[in-house]
Amino acid sequence: MAEEKSAAEQLQEKLLIKTENGGLALDDAELQKAQEFCEGYKAFLNAAKTEHEAVAYTVEKLKAGGYVEFEPGKRYNPGDKVYYNNRGKALVFATIGTEGFEQGVRIVAAHIDSPRLDLKPRPLYEEAQLAYLKTHYYGGLKKYQWGAIPLALHGVVVKKDGTTVQVKIGEDPEDPIFCVTDLLPHLGREQMKRPLAEGLRGEELNILVGCHPFRDDKASEKVKLNIANILFEKYGITEYDFLSAELEAVPAFDARDLGLDRGMIGSYGQDDRVCAYTAIEAGLAATAPVHTTVTVLADKEEIGSNGNTGLKCSYLRYFIADLAAPYGVEARTVLSHSQCLSADVNAAYDPNFADVYERKNSCYINYGVVITKYTGAGGKSGTSEASAHYMAKMRRLLDDAGVLWQTGELGKVDAGGGGTVAMYIAELNVDVVDVGVPVLSMHAPFEVVSKVDVYMTYRAFCEFLKEQK
C-alpha cells in the first residue's frame, strides 16, 4: 500500500516546479524511440557539415517526400508541399494547411551555419617549403580550440565560365586530412603568457596542406606549385578560382555516441543542426496540417544573420507574401496572425564552469527541450522576449502532449550573452519564442547533446505544427 503523502508533500506537488531527468521521467519505450531517432540525426550531422550540404541533403529528402519547387503566383491546395531554395545556402519549405492564410502560418526557424575556418580569397602560399591555406575564422569560436585537430575541406568553387565544382576532402577514410599546427610546450613559454583568447591568433590559423615540391629546377615556390597542380588535376581549378569559391575547413571526425550509457552525442556543428534536423523531420511529418507549416533553414546566424541568406534579409517575408497573394491575402495579415518557434540551442549547465551559470535558471542535459523566454546580453539587449501569453500557450501545448521540457537562460546576468533569429522573426510582428536543445561545449569543434533532449525537441516541433489554435 502506497504511503499517504504529507500536507507539505501535497503542497509541493501542487505549487512548486518539479523537473526530472529524462532517464527517470521517460519509460523504456520512449527512451528507445530517442535512441532510434538519433541514428538518423547522426547520419545528418555527418552528411551536412556546411550550409550548402545541409540544403542539398534537405532538398533531396523533400523531393523524395513529394515536395516541389515553389512557383510564385500559383494557387496551392491543402496538402500541397513546396520549397524555396535560396542560393543553395538557405531553404524554406511549406505544407499547405486547411485554414486560410488570413489565420496565419506556423513557422519553425533554425539555422544551418556553424563556426568554422573559411579560406581567404587568396589562401594558398608557401613558407619554409611547406604549403598552407590562409583562413578567416567564421562565427564566435575560441581560436585555440582549432589547433592540432584533424580538418576536412568542404565547399564549392565556381569557375569563371559558371561551372560549379563540389569539394569535399578529408571525410573518406582514404582521403588526406589537414590541420592548423600549434607550438610545442618546450618552446611555448611566451605563447602561454598570452590571454587565452590569443592562444592562437587569427593570422596563425593557417592550414597545413603539403610538403612535396614540384620537380622542376626552374620553378619558384615549388611546394605551392605542386599543391596547385594536384588541385588542378583533381578538380580542374586554378589559383584564380579561389577568388570565386566558398571553401570551409571543418573538423574531420564523425558524430559518435558519447558516454558508457550512449545517452549523448558528440559532434561538430550541433549548434544549430540539432534544431535544423528536428525541424526538418517535424516539417516532413506535418502531412495534413490545419495551419500552413513553414520550416526555415537560415544561413549566417552565427555572424548576425546578415546577407541575402540570413534572416535579416526579406526572403522569408517575400516567400509568405507570394504564397498568400493568389488568395488575396496581404503578407502583413498572414504574419500578424502567425506563430513561430525560433529553433535554436541554449547553453547547458556545466558543473566544471559553474561560476558563469545561475543554477535556478539554467537548462540541463537530459531534462528535455528547453524554452528560452529571452536571450541577449546585460539588460536584455539584442533579444526578443516572448510574451507571457505566448509562454502560457507553450506550457499548455507541451504539457498536454506529455513532452519533457524545461526553461533556461544563457548564463548569469552580465556573464556574457548571445542572440538568435527570434528578434528578426519578431520584427515581422510574429509571436516567437526560442525552443531547442541544451548543448555542452557550444561553439567548440566537438559539441555534446543528450539524445532525450533531441527527441523531445522533435516532439515539441511536431506538436506545435499540428496545433490548431
From TrEMBL:
EC number: 3.4.11.-
Obligatory cofactor(s): Zn(2+)
Alphabetized InterPro entries for the sequence: Peptidase_M18, Peptidase_M18_dom2
One GO term describing the cellular component: cytoplasm
Enzyme type, top EC level: hydrolase
Entries under Pfam families matching the protein: Peptidase_M18
BP GO annotations: proteolysis
GO molecular function per UniProt: aminopeptidase activity; metallopeptidase activity; zinc ion binding
Keyword Metal-binding: yes
Keywords of the record: Aminopeptidase, Hydrolase, Metal-binding, Metalloprotease, Protease, Zinc
Top-rank lineage group of the source organism: Bacteria
PANTHER family given in the database record: ASPARTYL AMINOPEPTIDASE (PTHR28570), M18 FAMILY AMINOPEPTIDASE 1-RELATED (PTHR28570:SF2)
Family indicated by similarity: Belongs to the peptidase M18 family.
Protein name: M18 family aminopeptidase
UniProt organism field: Ligaoa zhengdingensis
